[in-house]
Amino acid sequence: MASYVVLEPAKNGKPRIKITVELGYDEETGKRIRKYKTVTLTSLSDRAIKKAITEFEITVSKMDIEQIIESITFADFRQRWMDNYVRLDLSPATKSHYLRILNTGTFEKFDDMRMKKIKKFHIVEYFSNEKKEGRKNLSNKFSILKSIFAKAVEWEIINENPMSGIKAPHVEPRKKELEFYDAQQLSQMLEAINNLNLKYRVIYKLACLVGLRESEITALRLEKINFVNNTILIDQALKYDTEGKSELILGPTKNKKSRIVAVPEKFMEEIKEQVHAQKKLKIKSGNAWKPMKDEDGKDIDFLVTSQIVLGYPILPSSLGSTWHRHAKKLGLPKLNFHALRHSCASYLLSNDANFKIIQEQLGHSDVGLTMNTYSHLTKEDKRAAIELFNKIL
Fold first, then answer.
1. I need a labelling partner for 195 at 20 to 30 A (CA). Which of 43, 87, 302, 369 fits?
2. Do residue 97 and residue 130 come from a single domain?
3. What is the pLDDT of residues 232-259, one digit of tens each?
4. Do residue 259 and residue 371 come from a single domain?
């Protein structure tokens, strides 16, 4: 907001005004922030005064932006990066992941530094100290810093990216043996779960016979199931958004792509039973049915729902504990829930399914990921193949 007062004429007799632009209050002192300028005009006409005020307001606005750019600290810019990029453009899972890392005081070393003063050496030294202290998540921290400084360049806060040319910290990959049920164990498992409630039989078979992730199973809606072609459209995943209302929401799949998965015909009959069971339960529950709503306020009909809040989806992370309890009760080998998905891939490979088919069924971003994940499962097949040369030796 701007105002002006008329001053005594200049020595040459031309009229003068003093313009005041209000910029709010200083957060620390509580005092008003004002900018002043004395302007000599050719006349005191409304047009001349308005033009002078507008020009000064533009000048002050530019000064304010330049001052922000010059003085902005890493902590201040990180918050703007979060508000103007992460919260608007990234998935709930990524937002939650970033927040978990940032909320541990990860980048306190940089917080009070001006963005323009942070150099390559500061970043190299930071990761060197992190490695010496044996701290974790170095790759994730590197990715976050890379994103922050990339946006700082894009938004013209800094001219050069201090992350440019710096190699990501080398982290020894965790060597974890891939766990899965072999063909015999898978057969035993499928027989054992016949003693469970229909809903849980369907959940576990969606993992080991179709290769779905927890978040995809819990996001399945009835209208996505095609009983004519025995297929299911996997177009969304259930995510837990830790920001705002801290609620479950439907978001994109892990690789942000939709896919159609094939379902064994016999298993499709059980899915059809579960669909009918859900519809009956909805009618029977009446006002106790509390479903998730879509953007238009309509009920979302999930294939499997919570027993606690009828009609509401199941928390994806709860499938692991439920599976652990059932596996123990049924005397099955101890494997985590995700291992059921690995069992699906293992069975397909052992029966000569090619990697491309497995990639599409499991929803991997590319076939290379599928091959890197499951190639070691085919060692026996490779050994058998190479023994064929014995016939011509």
1. 302
2. yes
3. 999 999 987 655 555 788 888 888 889 9
4. yes
Q: Which residues contact 264 (CB under 8 A, 6 or more apart)?
A: 209, 230
**Residues with Cβ < 8 Å from 176, sequence gap 6 or more?**
none
Angstrom distance (rounded) from CA 88 to CA 97? 15
Beta bridge partner(s), residue 40: 16
Per this entry, what is the length of the chain?
393
| CB of 219 closer than 8 Å to CB of 294 | no
User: What is the pTM (predicted TM-score) of this model?
Assistant: 0.63
User: Which residue type occupies 259?
Assistant: R
285 & 144 share domain: no
Q: DSSP letter at 144?
A: H
Q: What is the dihedral of CA 88, 92, 97, 98, to 10 degrees?
A: 10
* Nearest CA among 199, 215, 242 for reference residue 317: 215
What whole-number distance in Å separates Cα of residue 99 and Cα of residue 92? 10
Which domain range does residue 135 map to? 74-154
**Contact, 213 vs 237, CB < 8 A?**
yes
Angle in degrees, CA 244, 249, 252, rounded to 5: 120
pLDDT digits (tens, 9 = 90+) for 118-177: 999 999 999 998 888 888 888 888 999 999 999 999 988 888 899 998 888 876 656 567
Give how far Cα 114 sits from Cα of 73, 124, 171, 276, 360, Å: 4, 17, 29, 61, 47
Rounded Cα gap, residues 203 and 328, in angstroms: 17
34: enclosing H helix or E strand: strand 32-40
